[in-house]
Amino acid sequence: MIVAIDGPAGAGKGTLARRLAAAFNLAYLDTGALYRAVGVAVLDAGGNPADPAAAESAARNLGLDLLDSPRLRTEAAGDAASQVAAVPGVRAALLEFQRQFAHHPPSPCVGAVLDGRDIGTVVCPEARLKLFVTASAEERARRRTLELRGKGIAAIQDRVLADMLARDERDRDRKVAPLAPANDAVVLDTTDMDADMVFDRAAALVRNAATPA
Ligand code: C5P
Q: With a 6 A CB cut-off, is 118 part of the ligand 1 pocket?
């Protein structure tokens, strides 16, 4: 059972994916963390995330220990992630790990839920259920600002919105694996929904997808 969740920044994919994973005994992979870790590794080495050679080398030598680091959660890491994510060699280097995780989730999980930008279109086009979770840019910026402030990080909503729009544009316009809903994805616009409503709706879809036809 593979559930693919894609969508733009701040749409609530991670919160939803975590809750679905817990409710349905699925392993969760935050694929954005992989790209963030590559971006941070390039910055740590004093490189430019937009430099394809530096980005690809960081992706090929990525240590998984960085994946849980709070440093990945900053806006600077998100911005660096979206720059390295446009490099084809970076995407190729990370693809196999994501597919392996999806098809061989750690025991005792009965499947996997992956969230990102290209899970339903590229990484797992065979996923049993594909969700495209979105919300208006203003609402996504509002939620992200609250989240950052909750972590004690000073955040200005207009600035968060501008960064988010720049990142969305880069993710949508890139040549490889651009952000887009798969043809068979269910689109969930969460602008006027709270996290419980989104979860209830998605859980019903998972139950439905898990039932043999
Ligand atoms: O989801 P998150 O905001 O952590 O992702 C950070 C960046 O990583 C995104 O803006 C996007 O450029 C990139 N990404 C991607 N493909 C994925 C997951 C993330 O290109 N599957």
A: yes
Mean pLDDT of all residues in 143-168: 90
CA 23 / ligand 1 centre spacing (Å)? 24
CA of 173 to the centre of ligand 1 (A): 13
Q: Report, as an integer, the average pLDDT of 126-153.
A: 94
Sign of CA dihedral 62, 64, 32, 178: positive
- pTM higher than 0.85 for the full model? yes
Pairing status of strand 26-30 against strand 186-189: unpaired
Query: What tokens appear for 71 in the block?
Result: 């440093």
- Residue 135's pLDDT is 96
- Number of domain units in the chain: 1
- The mean-pLDDT minimum among 27-36, 129-138, 154-163, 193-202 falls in 154-163
- Examine residue 180 and state whether it is found in any structural domain, yes or no: yes
Instruction: Please tell me the distance between residue 171's alpha carbon and the centre of ligand 1 in angstroms.
Output: 8
How far is the C-alpha of 90 from the C-alpha of 97, rounded, in Å?
Answer: 12
- What pLDDT shows up at residue 130? 98
Neighbours of 96 (CB within 10 A): 10
| Site to substitute for ligand 1 among 13, 29, 31, 179, most atoms within 8 A of C-beta | 31
Evaluate whether residue 24 is within a structural domain: yes
- Among protein residues, the one whose CA lies closest to atom 16 of ligand 1: 117
Residue 155's domain comprises 2-192
